[in-house]
Amino acid sequence: MEQTTCFHCGDDCNAAIILYDEKNFCCNGCKTVYEIFSENDLTCYYDLQASPGAIPKEIQGKYDFLSQDNIIEKLTEFNDGNTQIATLYIPHIHCSSCIWILENLNKLNPNISSSQVNFGKKNIRVTYNPEKTSLKDVVLLLSTIGYEPYISLDDFKTGQQNVNRSLIYKLGIAGFAFGNVMFLSFPEYFQVGEFWLEQYKHLFRWLMFVFSLPVVFYSGADYFISAYKGLRSKLLNIDVPIALGIAVLFLRSTAEIIFDLGSGFFDSLTGLVFFLLLGKFFQQKTYSFLSFERDYKSYFPIAVTIISSEGIETPIQVYDIKKGDRLLIRNEELIPVDGILINGKARIDYSFVTGESETVSKISGDKLFAGGKQTSGVIEMEAIKSVEQSYLTQLWSNDVFSKNKDDGFTTLTNKISKKFTIAVLSIAVIATTFWLFVDASKAMNVFTAVLIIACPCAIALSAPFTFGNLLRIFGKLKFYVKNASVIEQLASINTIIFDKTGTITSNKKSTATYDGLALNPSEEILLKNTLRGSNHPLSRTLYDILDEHNIISLNHFEEHLGKGIEATHNDNHIKIGSASFVGAGETSILNTQVHISTNNEYKGKYTFYNSYRKGLSKLFNKLKKQYDLVILSGDNEGEFENLKKLLPSKTKLIFNQKPDDKLDYIKYHQTEGAKILMIGDGLNDAGALAQSNVGIALSENVNVFSPACDAILDASKFNQLDKFISASKSAIKIIKWSFVLSFVYNIIGLYFAVTGQLAPVIAAILMPLSSISIVIFTTIATNLLGRKLE
Amino acid sequence: MSVIYILLSISIIVAVVFFIAFLTAVRKGQFDDSYTPSVRMLFDDELVKEQPKPTIKIKKTN
After folding, report:
1. Is the pLDDT of residue A395 over 70?
2. Helix (H, G, I), strand (E, B), or coil: what is residue A257?
3. What SS3 class is residue A611?
4. Which of A536, A568, A656, A770 has its CA 20 to 30 A from that of A51?
């Protein structure tokens, strides 16, 4: 059978196909979005990209809190009587159609004056007239067309966020000055002793001096600050020789033009700073749509509905929840505080907290933990703690989250720079003493020349360009690394710790076994066709596992939320769902089961098992040669035997670990000298990810969820992990080779400097030459490395 | 040869004008998002195409 795909969202039309305007739709939601667009002449949406849409979700009542003034004030960046500007994060933004439709919002609501998309950050900046429409209307409009914004507690801060653009300014100024100084310094290189040049060279020189002032004191300021900080903590970091080089270049050049000794090194000076900043710019993180610093705030809602004693429902800010408050949690809403279930049937999805995708049923009187998501109907609960005191949020009071990981780590560049600085200073001193005895007039010249030529521009550029390029290559392969030093740390690890659920197992349960009375062919057809109509995750999984059958139209179909589904075809009646719904005795097995009965006769059950990610044991076998492997699981030991068979015998398997236990385990082994790579997925791993040397969050969908970490790995690339680690190691080799290359340039330069023949023109050639050749070398080498990865 | 003063000042003024243009561009946030404008630029055509709606319909029936 050929699958028909939905014109709007591109999903397979499994259930009844809705035909409208000669196009197929998978559900009424998609059809409605199409109707809205076609009524407003916005069908270009579908021309730019095929099936770009998303199914709009049920949102009734979800955004009631947006009508509260104090919440609006926190979410808008600009607000006066008739203009409001709000920036909303929309995870679904993914193609040019999205940009087009979102920037034409004013066609759908004329009170929106403008909307501007930032594709990289996946957000939209909407300007609207609050007298005629409201933030809530805007959000509802976006939701109805399938672009539901993601509003979390993290957005709860007043005013505009300051974007730090200082690096762009610094780079621009250095580039501007570099270009102009080059032009002004050229005449003296080519024409020596020419009459008119003699007349005007002083003017040229002083102009160069003026151009170099902002470069030294603004663009290069960071190097002086960093060098000063390094020296104060008795560290010879790479910025010390750089700062020394910049300072000497500037002072000697100024002295030269004041006493009319020469034209100075202003072109080398500005070029040096420009190249250094270019390296910094290149290394800057490139994934603006990912956040590596997320804590629970990014997942929590801003507001929930509170029920007063008189039964009135009002939205309330999450921070204002007090012990004893009665809260209303709707379908698909997150539980913000620990509490007790009072009313309603709860099916809680704790995947945010534990990584476990299976929902848990709760009945009234049961305790609910913050971070769970209600998945069936409306419930009422009573808060027993405030937000900050809840079980999940308390994890963040641990001081690992306030520590900066980079502090205790010496980068390769800084290790080299220590020896380098000492060597350069001793060469300078020895050469100066030598000249003091031979020709004292040249001594000062030689001293400064050594410091100028030895300025480790090329060394300082090696790491930024290698790592920066590798970050980009990794990003293309769906491995998003926070910054360059993470790659360096990744190359030095010796222990790898995996979380179990959601990390080495996949969230989609894809194996199930049937147990019970055999189903006859007509029952099988009925079963498959009934599942076809349901959107419950378990139904979808089971539907995919079962054999293909003919499509029949059901006489009756009904879905009971949180219980199961029933359907009738001719005389046959089928019930699929939980044991109590189907009429089987309660079974107490840990694994998930789906029970089936036909015509009120219990038939049997499908039992789902953990399915491990593809290539898991292959990956472990590759890694075991070089690393200690550990599995730290929060689960019970149910899967122990299974894992033992699958993984190399050396692998340590530890079960029943609470979030704090994982953190302590890592801390303990770090004191014994282990360099640990932690791979996890849930918020329960957040502490372990923060404590480890490198914490990688595995994510099925990088846009949606990941705890604070150093890198985010797309789940589909999990079996490539060993390649990423070995690529990081090769990157270190590339850097070492480029160090060798830059030492060669330094030795050539030092020859001129020590012998007292360093003319500005030599410096002006040598410095850009060394920098550019390093950039070319590292870029080509990392690209070759990247090709091997693919 | 004092014309060089005029030439120099003109060249510096031109340079400074571009420099100021750069500063304002950064300040207005033109460097914050380097991807979206490249796509947005292509949209103006799509909007124009939309007005003669019947032509699209004719295309589809053929």
Report:
1. no
2. helix
3. coil
4. A536
Q: What CATH number does residue A602 fall under?
A: 3.40.1110.10
Give A396's pLDDT tier (boundaries 50, 70, 90): low
Q: Hey, which residues does A379 pair with through a beta bridge?
A: A329
A289 — pLDDT class (breaks 50, 70, 90): low
Q: Is residue A572 part of a domain?
A: yes
- By Cβ distance, the residue of B8, B12, B26 closest to A168 is B26
Task: Choose between A429 and A119: higher pLDDT.
Answer: A429
Inform me whether the C-beta atom of residue A117 falls under 8 Å from chain B C-beta atoms. Answer: yes
* Per-residue pLDDT at B18: 92
pLDDT of residue A210: 93
**Which H or E element spans position A360?**
strand A359-362
H or E segment to which residue A556 belongs: strand A556-560
Instruction: Quote the strand ranges of A364-504, DSSP E.
Output: 367-368, 373-374, 379-383, 479-481, 495-499
For residue A412, tell me if it sits in a domain.
no
Q: How far apart are the first and last CA of chain A?
A: 35
Mutate to test the interface with A, among B32, B42, B48 (most CBs of A within 10 A): B32
Domain end position, chosen among A93, A127, A155: A155
- Which structural domain, as residue segments, surrounds residue A84? 64-155
B45 touches chain A (CB under 8 A): no
Assess if residue A415 is contained within a domain. no
Same domain, A485 and A593: no
Number of structural domains (chain B) is: 1
Same domain for A492 and A620, yes or no, is yes
ipTM of predicted complex = 0.74
Question: Between A and B, how many CB-CB pairs are < 8 A?
Answer: 62
User: Which candidate from A48, A165, A173 shows the least CB-CB separation from B31?
Assistant: A165
- Specify the pTM: 0.75
Number of domains in chain A: 6
Point out the residue among B15, B22, B56 whose CB comes nearest to the CB of A172: B22
Task: Tell me how far apart the alpha carbons of residues A629 and A626 are, in angstroms, rounded to a whole number.
Answer: 9
Q: Among all residues of chain A, which has the CA nearest to that of B11?
A: A180
The number of residues making up chain B comes to: 62
Q: What is the pLDDT of residues A715-769, one digit of tens each?
A: 888 888 889 999 999 999 999 999 898 888 888 888 888 887 877 788 888 888 8
pLDDT tens by residue, B3-14 = 888 888 898 899
